[in-house]
């Protein structure tokens, strides 16, 4: 067995509409935002260039490359109400549109979003059925912000939640842990499982980035789910050492306490130092080291069952190096794609009083949770 790599060219064809950066385009009387060639930061090149780099270095030959089937109507309906799915499909069959906040899609967008969810489902199932040691789903559009009836933050369907519910329904697992290291709070995943004790949701994110009104450490779940949601909000500029401290002192102990059957990582790369939507100073080495921790935790707790599902990350030049480091670590490959910005980012890491403040912040969170 080896690492499964699930992708589909059609997912790169998802297209958003009338935006420049995250602002809707409008002339006089409409916001004075001039159209741009780039559109939304969520564009296919960050993902396609990751795939391309993995091919060029030869790492792709060491992975088991697979394609997934679209999530079925039944699988989607376990998370999303059918009236929402019907509205989404109707717009998609027409000319496209937008159902939530910053979630434009073109004609055929429903089918691509269902395929993106299907990639996550297929990757998770391959691990749970023992077909792969671990697996990576290059899903696009992303999913961790999507609420059952409200797409937002570029996310049209809740990919990871759909995959989890499908696995539970098939009897492949009983307890799943989600570790979300995207720079933005995983508000959709949190909301879907907030009152559940069979899914542990952990989000490590930049405090008050997006959404600005969710992700507080005080939000620990409700009802049966109380204590099964963990938010780890970090100050902007936290950097490599703080992320590793969060993993070692907060995430890993929470996983050990929960004892999952499998671990899913919502793998966003927007905590990287040059991301246009984050300010966290992480590097390719940060993502490699966090992946190492997840592989070790999965080996210890759940027979190595680990799945990573691609979320955000909007620096098309730098995301590929972060993703390559993750895939090399997952697969145990010796192939490297040297980080061209490693020295610059290392020199910019917090130190002195800032480092002491960040260490104290992790200590405060540890006292809160444990």
UniProtKB/TrEMBL annotation:
<comment type="similarity">
    <text>Belongs to the histone deacetylase family.</text>
</comment>
<dbReference type="GO" id="GO:0040029">
    <property type="term" value="P:epigenetic regulation of gene expression"/>
</dbReference>
<dbReference type="InterPro" id="IPR023801">
    <property type="entry name" value="His_deacetylse_dom"/>
</dbReference>
<dbReference type="GO" id="GO:0004407">
    <property type="term" value="F:histone deacetylase activity"/>
</dbReference>
<dbReference type="InterPro" id="IPR023696">
    <property type="entry name" value="Ureohydrolase_dom_sf"/>
</dbReference>
<dbReference type="InterPro" id="IPR037138">
    <property type="entry name" value="His_deacetylse_dom_sf"/>
</dbReference>
<dbReference type="InterPro" id="IPR000286">
    <property type="entry name" value="HDACs"/>
</dbReference>
<dbReference type="Pfam" id="PF00850">
    <property type="entry name" value="Hist_deacetyl"/>
</dbReference>
<protein>
    <submittedName>
        <fullName>Class II histone deacetylase</fullName>
    </submittedName>
</protein>
């Amino acid at each position: 067995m080896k690492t499964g790599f699930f992708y589909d060219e059609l997912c790169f064809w998802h297209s958003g509409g009338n935006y420049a950066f995250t602002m809707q385009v409008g002339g006089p009387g409409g916001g004075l935002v001039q159209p741009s060639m780039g559109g939304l930061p969520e564009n296919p090149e960050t993902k396609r260039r990751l795939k391309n780099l993995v091919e060029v270095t030869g790492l792709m030959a060491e992975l088991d490359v697979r394609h997934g089937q679209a999530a079925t109507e039944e699988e989607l309906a376990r998370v999303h109400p059918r009236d929402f799915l019907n509205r989404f499909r109707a717009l998609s069959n027409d000319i496209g549109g937008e159902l939530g906040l910053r979630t434009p899609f073109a004609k055929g967008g429903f089918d691509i979003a269902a395929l993106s969810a299907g990639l996550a489902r297929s990757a998770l199932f391959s691990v749970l059925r023992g077909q792969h040691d671990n697996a990576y789903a290059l899903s696009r559009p992303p999913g961790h912000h999507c609420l059952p009836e409200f797409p937002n933050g570029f996310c049209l369907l809740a990919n990871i939640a759909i995959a989890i519910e499908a696995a539970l329904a098939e009897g492949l697992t009983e307890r799943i842990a989600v570790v979300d290291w995207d720079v933005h709070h995983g508000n959709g995943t949190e909301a879907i499982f907030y009152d559940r004790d069979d899914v542990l949701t952990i989000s490590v994110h930049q405090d008050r980035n997006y959404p600005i009104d969710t992700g507080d450490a005080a939000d620990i779940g409700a009802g049966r789910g109380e204590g099964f949601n963990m938010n780890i909000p970090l100050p902007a500029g936290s950097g490599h050492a703080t992320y590793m401290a969060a993993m070692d002192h907060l995430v890993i102990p929470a996983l050990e306490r929960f004892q999952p059957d499998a671990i899913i990582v919502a793998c966003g790369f927007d905590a990287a130092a040059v991301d246009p939507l984050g300010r966290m100073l992480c590097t390719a080495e940060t993502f490699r080291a966090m992946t190492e921790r997840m592989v070790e935790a999965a080996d210890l707790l759940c027979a190595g069952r680990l799945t990573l599902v691609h979320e955000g990350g909007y620096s098309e030049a730098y995301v590929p190096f972060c993703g390559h480091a993750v895939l090399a670590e997952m697969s145990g490959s010796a192939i490297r794609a040297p980080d061209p910005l490693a020295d610059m980012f290392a020199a910019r890491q917090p130190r002195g009083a800032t480092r002491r403040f960040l260490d104290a912040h992790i200590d405060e969170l540890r006292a809160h949770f444990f």
